[in-house]
User: What shape does this take?
Amino acid sequence: MEGSDDEFSPFLEREWSDKKNGKVKYYRRLSAFCNEKFPQIRLATELEKEILIKDLAKSPTFKATKRTLRSLASVDDLSGDQASEVLEAALNNNQIYWIAEEPSVHKTLAEILAPHREALDPELLDDFDRLYAKEGPPAMPKAAVGYGPDPPEDDLFDPPERTETPQSSVAHDEEIPFRPSRPIFPIKILLLHGWHSVPGGVKPSYLDRHGHEVINPALSDDDWDEAVRTAQAEYNRHRPDVIVGSSRGGAVAMNIDSGSTPLVLLCPAWKRWGTVKEAKPGTVILHSEGDDVIPIAESGELVRASGLPESALVVVGNDHRLADPEPLQAMLAACERAVLRGKTGDD
Assistant: This one.
């Protein structure tokens, strides 16, 4: 053929017209031909796209999100409706937007949506651009929050929390966990540690290193009422933006009067301590299927008893400690997202 890729050679067209008494119509793809001539046929490739998009919308873990995005990036010719479904999934599934600033996530989504931006809902696109911006929403200057350079990755796990078994060697996802160069805004976090843990462990250190103010009081291991009184006093004194409760600390968080302050509960031991058996609206729960201390089924039960959406339970991590990179990242994202919702008035 000569000329452009979209045209047959004039010689071939004349040849076909003279000998076959017909006219050549050029289709760049088989899918276009089938859509016009056999609209009732659904090609396997189209079915694959629909399955991938549904998988993305219902993705239950960060790893599943990344795996599905890699598959979606390899397919061609998403329709406008399919691109719209991808956009809605990116805004509605916390297993996608909580890792929004990982390069493999925001870059892939941006490339998928780019050919369809003019046809997509502009309000949803604005939300996408704000949520998936590489730099995130404006932050306070580093000097104002005392935010310095990131520490080495190996420092994430020092010091270990008392009485808990050391972190086992686990093969994580192939990508380096996302660690932002600055917080989306400095927030005040009340972190209530677990039974026989101490202040200054892995979790408060991680949040502090990401530029946030962490109040991490020592809670009594032997006196439940005293632990609740201490937590209540710290809440009243500091009025934090969000409360994180780990294991027994999650039960403490549920049993203090914290008004509308959002809760992020990590493997909460709510069935073992306290009298409160429901979590407030907006609560997010992180739990590992590999937890051999507090069964993940208890968090599922708490979600149902509290009338929370299924998405409130985030399955992440390898064990009860939730001290691996992925659950630490999820904890940070849950805190920032909870406060961002409050500042922007989102549900």
Notes: The first strand starts at residue 188 and ends at 192. The CA atoms of residues 83 and 114 lie 9 Å apart. The radius of gyration is 26 Å.
